[in-house]
Write a structure and sequence with these properties.
By secondary structure, this protein is α+β, with helices and mostly antiparallel strands. It contains 8 helices and 20 strands. The strands form 6 sheets. A 6-stranded mixed β-sheet has the order 1-2-6-3-7-19. Strands 13-15-9-16 form a 4-stranded antiparallel β-sheet. Strands 4-5-20 form a 3-stranded antiparallel β-sheet.
Length: 354
């Protein structure tokens, strides 16, 4: 098994996955395709829901590296000019939904895992390797990698195969969604009665628009918040007694979600805030980590990523490194290049062996 053969197998597997719709929370069939392929390769695969895990024997003397990418996709946007579930190869490109996000990383990491654990590279691998193909990543669902993490051994570092142009993304922003509400008192709009909930919310909405977080990350820039949804009123002649809104908060690694929420809640004049969850934290790995430094020595450039991944649920060092480009994700006529998959397999094998 050489890199060329591995690449051919990876592309063929990805074509099967593209042809098997796997929108988040509906990944059972695609997980079956992956499971069948992995068992056919002789891998000791375990299935946890629609997540797949390969956990070889662990040497307690070696650090353990998790290789992770996700099976699921977003729904196809309406502007596709081709069938998103019909894999098509044109030149170096393989078109299809999920090809770039995150099918390329999914199959590349699997093939690198096979090469490294089988010893066919002829190089020493100074790590225990664990492979996980997870589901529900696009919706941060509870049935995704969160189900697998408690079943894993102690992980020293994770490589997440999101599309990064094969450059290491050593930090990514977290996400917190906050629901806000201002309350007033209903009344007839023609009279002076009532308390308008929209007006009650105004000062707090202006604060949310104008406030700038002070701690600026050299990798991720400032934390950011945006009011994205606003609802109030029932009809034109009734003073609204409630105004509700949603705030999208993107934290950098210098803030915890809990810290930001407590600050915002204390800063409101009239509105009540409630966070839907604190679980999707910003993540980062020390730039001095040996794997990051090895990538730098190979000419790679670490950067900070604004997009969220399963790293948000990992409570150990992790970074993103995968084929494809983030700009292609969630877009019409998504594609991955065959050459990108081959380069990824080669890079993973070089990075994780002596």
């Amino acid at each position: 098994m050489n890199t060329e053969k591995c690449t051919q197998e990876a592309v063929a597997l990805l074509q099967r996955l593209i042809a098997t719709p796997s929108v988040s929370r509906d990944e059972a069939a695609a997980a079956g395709v992956m499971e069948e392929f992995m068992k056919g390769c002789g891998l000791p695969v375990s299935r946890v829901g629609n997540n797949l895990m390969v956990l070889p024997a662990i040497d307690p003397e070696l650090p353990t590296v998790l290789l992770n990418a996700h099976i699921d996709t977003v729904k196809p946007v309406s502007s596709w000019t081709r069938n998103p579930f019909a894999p098509a190869i044109e030149g170096d490109r393989l078109y299809g939904l999920g090809s770039n996000d995150c099918g390329g990383g999914l199959v590349s990491l699997l093939q690198a895992f096979r090469m490294l654990t089988s010893g066919v590279t002829g190089r020493h691998v100074p790590y225990n390797l664990v492979y996980v193909a997870s589901c529900e990543e696009e919706v941060s669902g509870s049935g995704g990698i969160a189900m697998v993490l408690p079943r894993l051994p102690k992980i020293d570092v994770a490589i997440v195969g999101e599309p990064t142009g094969l450059q290491p993304a050593i930090a990514e922003k977290g996400l917190m969604v906050i629901d806000g509400v201002a309350r007033g008192k209903s009344g007839h709009a023609a009279r002076n009665g009532g308390v308008n909930a929209i007006y009650e919310a105004l000062d707090d909405l202006v604060f949310l628009r104008d406030y700038r977080f002070q701690r600026v990350s050299p990798l991720l820039g400032p934390a950011k918040m945006t009011v994205t949804v606003l609802n109030s009123g029932t009809q034109h002649n009734v003073v609204p007694d409630e105004c509700s809104f949603v705030v999208d908060v993107r934290t950098n690694e210098l803030y915890t979600n809990e810290e930001v929420f407590q600050f915002l809640a204390a800063s409101m004049k009239k509105c009540e805030l409630k966070a839907r969850s604190f679980r999707l934290s910003s993540s980062h790995i020390d730039a001095a980590h040996p794997l990051v430094q090895r990538l730098v020595a190979m000419g790679k450039q670490p950067f900070g990523s604004p997009t969220l991944s399963d790293q948000a649920l990992m409570r150990f060092p992790s970074f993103k490194l995968g084929p494809g480009e983030s700009s292609r994700s969630h877009s019409a006529d998504e594609f991955i290049c065959r050459s990108e998959i081959q380069s990824a397999i080669e890079l993973y094998c070089t990075l994780l062996s002596d």
